[in-house]
């Protein structure tokens, strides 16, 4: 029997959830009321602080920090987007910096210290290049999603009236994250990848570690899960069905946008480019939790398998 109250849900515009959004795939026993945001980080902040939605895609680092701060949330083991993160940290074209170790004693920019893209990249810098992250100063321009979080002492907000882009343009920063994770798009022509052989490094890293960075998990209010214990499994099945439709369209060539082609390319490296389930993503979940702890984003957390539920 369907609950008479539609469940408020926020999802990014991903191909693998298109059939859920259109109603072609339905969640057994539930109706979904989709709430859209122009900027998904705004939804992340609301869900982490106030839980105004029943179900919400969350940046995985935001989710871990919210749980550590006591938010009544649990996530399904349904990573929404995947992208390796050796690339995405940019330097000015005229910068003399070349090797990641040269970041020690210098400053870099990121929209907020807890941005998941930066957590993955800092993990790579530490584990693959031996960078002492405590010796890098990070400048930010946005507030952290979890209001109670206090960043470590090597994290500073940009000076009043300044942005990361203006600091980069004025050469106060030589390195910063691109796009929404950092300086936006205005300086694109003046920036190049900091890790020059990033793509080759990513493939080698994956083959050595099995870590496939995830961005976005599906968080549910814990009271709702207690009220409706069947909901987790029903949601999981619906997301799986929607993903199968999407991936079938990509493989058949009916879907061929930039993101679809990107996942086809990733499939050559990882097999299933959008794996669902805890076992299928255990190494990646465990790495993200480890990086979040090492980078002083979280302290104590429940066991990883209880943070990312697999109700199959």
Task: Explain the layout of strands and helices.
Blueprint: E1 7-10, H1 18-22, E2 32-34, H2 40-49, E3 55-58, H3 60-68, E4 73-76, E5 81-82, E6 89-92, E7 107-109, H4 116-129, E8 137-140, E9 155-157, H5 164-169, E10 175-177, E11 191-193, H6 198-209, E12 214-215, E13 217-221, H7 222-227, H8 231-252, H9 258-270, H10 278-294, H11 304-307, E14 308-309
Provide a quick synopsis of the model.
The protein has 312 residues and is of the alpha/beta class. It is 38% helix and 15% strand.
What does this structure look like?
The chain is an alpha/beta fold and 312 residues long. The protein folds into 2 domains: 7-83 and 212-309, D-Maltodextrin-Binding Protein, domain 2 (3-Layer(aba) Sandwich); 89-209, 3-Layer(aba) Sandwich (D-Maltodextrin-Binding Protein, domain 2). It has 11 helices and 14 strands. It has a 6-stranded mixed beta sheet with strand order 2-1-3-13-4-14. It has a 6-stranded mixed beta sheet with strand order 9-8-7-10-6-11, with no helix packed on it. Strand 1, helix 1 and strand 2 form a beta-alpha-beta unit. Helix 2 runs parallel beside helix 3 and helix 4 crosses helix 10. The longest helix has 22 residues, at 231-252. It is globular, with a radius of gyration of 20 Å.
């Amino acid at each position: 029997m369907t609950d008479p109250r539609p469940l408020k849900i926020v999802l990014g515009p991903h191909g693998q959830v298109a059939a859920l959004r259109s109603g072609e795939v339905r969640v057994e026993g539930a109706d979904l009321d989709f709430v859209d945001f122009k900027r998904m980080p705004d939804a992340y902040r609301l869900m982490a602080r106030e839980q105004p939605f029943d179900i919400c895609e969350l940046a995985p680092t935001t989710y871990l920090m919210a749980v550590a701060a006591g938010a009544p949330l649990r996530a399904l083991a349904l990573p929404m987007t995947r992208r390796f993160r050796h690339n995405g940290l940019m330097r000015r074209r005229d910068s003399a910096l070349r090797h990641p170790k040269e970041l020690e004693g210098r400053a870099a920019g990121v929209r907020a210290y807890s941005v998941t893209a930066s957590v993955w990249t800092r993990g790579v810098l530490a584990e693959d290049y031996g960078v002492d992250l405590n010796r890098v100063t990070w400048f930010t321009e946005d507030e952290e999603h979890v209001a109670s979080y206090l960043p470590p002492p090597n994290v500073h907000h940009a000076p009043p009236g300044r942005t990361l882009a203006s600091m980069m343009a004025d050469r106060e920063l030589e390195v910063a994250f691109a796009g929404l994770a950092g300086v936006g798009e205005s300086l694109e022509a003046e920036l190049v990848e900091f890790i020059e052989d990033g793509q080759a490094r990513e493939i080698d890293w994956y083959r050595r570690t099995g870590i496939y960075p995830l961005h976005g998990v599906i968080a549910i209010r814990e009271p709702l899960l207690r009220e409706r214990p069947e909901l987790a499994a029903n949601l999981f099945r619906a997301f799986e069905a929607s993903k199968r439709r999407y991936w079938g369209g990509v493989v058949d060539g009916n879907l061929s946008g930039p993101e679809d082609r990107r996942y086809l390319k990733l499939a050559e490296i990882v097999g299933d480019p959008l794996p669902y389930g805890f076992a299928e993503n255990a190494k990646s979940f465990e790495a993200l939790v480890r990086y979040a702890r090492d980078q002083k984003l979280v302290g104590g957390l429940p066991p990883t398998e209880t943070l990312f539920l697999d109700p199959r």
